[in-house]
Amino acid sequence: MRRRREEPGWLQGAPPPRWARFAPAVAMAALCLAQWSTPRTVELGYFLAALPAVAAFAYGAAGTAVFAALVLLLLGVPELGMGHARGTDLATVATVGLLSVVIALVRRRRDAQLVSVRTVAEAAQLAVLPPVPERVGAVRCAGLYRAAQRGTLVGGDLFDVRAGPFGVRALVGDVQGHGLAAVGTVASLLGAFREAVLDDPELAAVAARLDRRLAADAAAGFVAHPELFATAVLLEFPPGLDLVRVVSCGHPPVLLLRGFAVAEVTVEPGPPLGLGLGWAALPAMAELPLLPGDRLLAHTDGVTEARDRGGNFYPLAVRVPVLAGDPAGLVPAVWRDLAAFTGGGPRDDVALLLLSPEQRLTRGPSAP
Q1: Per-residue pLDDT tens over the stretch 201-253
Q2: Of 7, 91, 186, 285, whose CA is between 20 and 30 Å from 167?
Q3: At what angle do helices 88-128 and 183-199 cross, to 10 degrees?
């Protein structure tokens, strides 16, 4: 599964680029050559005093101390022809070098802390929404997730594919809001779904369980906004049958890819999750016979509501037939196309889940 993982930039915990490590040494060599090739009346050596501070951003305390010592040597020995620093001038340069060493030491410790915190955060987020395997039962899977909030792996969208006694079931959902504030609700819904895959024989009952879970959390004050709700679509591939069952809870329709033709799966949408309706208003379930090679693409509204600079929505159903033959795969092709359409990527959470069931021996009901 591909996710929007934005690596920390330089000065935010990432290792410095190579040019940053070479820059102090190159600058020192350039200044020395320039000074030695110009008349003694022009003094360029004092620019060397800034090099320890520059080195502190790319080197540790020991490396920065080496640069500071070299600068003191070049400026303090007149025979080297780089300067004639004396007394307070040398003291000032030495103070700058010492402060640079302290800065380098603090930066290294801070970088280590950032790496540790980031590693723990990524492990926690991956525990909430682990990567979708390439195959679950008799269904091949390909997923993509991009969180809207910078530096996060999980936002307000969710998906999962699980095998159970009633077949392979998949969930794609979109929680109200996005970013870290929605992660708790995402974790709660995914936990309820994984239990329902094992316990609930009917797909509509899975939706009812998710609705009760979300409503109970809101009533208990576990979420910041009591009016929190989520849209979701549930898919089920029953064992031994060439069909898919679909339940929609206010979610964008699933796309059926049959060859290079694309059509929306028709299902009467039920209410969003979190309204507390439970068994009183079970959503309708649709059954769709499948042919060899059929694929199902479920997505969140972060895809279809993404806009270009002219305010036009991304035409997913129109673009999918064009992108279906991409050798890199449909899901990566859709993301690249969406990023180009929006000029860098949408500002909302994005989730795509492509499901490709294998041909079974026993046919299901024939198409009407």
Answers
A1: 999 999 999 999 888 887 776 555 555 789 999 999 999 899 999 999 999 99
A2: 186
A3: 30
Residue whose structure tokens are 């360029």: 44
Cα distance between residue 318 and residue 327, in whole Å: 19
Q: Give the bridge partners for 244, in sequence order.
A: 288
In terms of Cα–Cα distance, which of 148, 188, 193, 187 is closest to 168?
193
Q: What is the CA radius of gyration of the chain?
A: 30
What is d(CA 177, CA 182) in angstroms, rounded to the nearest whole number?
6
Angle in degrees, CA 232, 152, 344, rounded to 5? 85
Cβ density class 184-215: b for 16+ within 10 Å, e for less: bbbbbbbebbeebbeebeebbbbbbbbbbbbb
What token pair was written down for 4? 């929007």
For the chain, what is the HEC assignment?
CEECCCCCCECCCECCCHHHHHHHHHHHHHHHHHHHCCCCCCCCHHHHHHHHHHHCCCCCHHHHHHHHHHHHHHHHCHHHCCCCCCCHHHHHHHHHHHHHHHHHHHHHHHHHHHHHHHHHHHHHHHHHCCCCCCEECCEEEEEEEECCCCCCCCCCEEEEEEEECCEEEEEEEEECCCCHHHHHHHHHHHHHHHHHHHHCCCHHHHHHHHHHHHHHHHHCCCCCCCCCCEEEEEEEECCCCCEEEEEEEECCCCEEEECCEEEECCCCCECCECCCCHHHHCCCEEEEECCCCCEEEEECHHHHCCECCCCCECCHHHHHHHHCCCCCCHHHHHHHHHHHHHCCCCCCCEEEEEEEECCCCCCCCCCC
pTM for the predicted model, two decimal places? 0.72
Residue with tokens 């010592």: 69
129: tokens are 């929404």
- The whole-angstrom separation of Cα 128 and Cα 185 is 10
Give the whole-angstrom CA distance, residue 217 versus residue 26. Answer: 60
Structure tokens of 50?
């800034």
Q: What is the pLDDT of residues 304-350, one digit of tens each?
A: 999 999 999 999 999 999 998 888 899 999 999 999 999 888 888 89
